[in-house]
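For reproducibility, we list the full input for the FE2/S2 (inorganic) cluster complex.
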Amino acid sequence: MTNETGSIICNCNEILYSEVEKAIREKKLMTIEEVGNETTAGTVCGGCVDEIYLLLEKINGKVEL
Ligand code: FES
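The corresponding predicted structure, in tokenized form, follows.
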């Protein structure tokens, strides 16, 4: 699976990878919970949480849980 920035990361809320990535960078988000609060990604079925985790790891180098 690839992390296409123009594609949807969270199907439930139709959130794009690029939106989550932007929020993480601009707001300096560190946790899945913070991403959910900012973008609503990951707050419904939780099926995209793994992808959010990978994005946090890619951008921050690590993930705070
Ligand atoms: S796909 Fe993101 S919460 Fe369901």
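The beta strands are 8-10, 15-16. Residues 9 and 17 are 5 Å apart (CA to CA). Both points were considered when choosing residues for closer inspection.
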